[in-house]
Amino acid sequence: MKVLQVVGFKNTGKTTLIQRMVALLKSKGRRVAVIKHHHLDKGVIDAGTDTGSFLEKGADFTILNTPNMSVRTENVQPSLEAQMMQLAGEVDVLLIEGYKREEYPKIVLTHSFTDGHTNVDKIGLRNVLKHADMRYDEGNIIQWFDEWSSDDETV
Description:
Layout (H helix, E strand, L loop, with lengths): L1 E7 L5 H14 L4 E5 L13 H7 L4 E6 L2 E6 L5 H8 L5 E5 L8 E4 L1 E2 L3 E2 L10 E5 L5 H13 L5
Helix pairs in contact: 1-4
């Protein structure tokens, strides 16, 4: 399983880039997973939904099943490493949005569409493969990612 993080401050285009990466991988028949980090618990799951109310009342797990999809929610502090282990063997590529301090190979997006240039040098990122600005570099990033993801080398 190849692992790539996409990191950057808010509104740098991380989600947009990952959406395009997923579409590229799926067009090639690859199996892909995405893990997204969010810094808040509130607002992620609407308390007005059944799932939100079950979690609010203390359910340890909720599972929502629809005809073609299942969404499992756990009311525990997540472990990125444990989640990655669960996906090993299930997917070809794992994309991780966020978790800046983790040391997996990563792309750093440097321009926030709301705040301008962001200085990521001060936060001590490690294992950075690329720095990019989504205003100018998106095509190059996708081309690089296509080559990188086609390589059979895993992390």
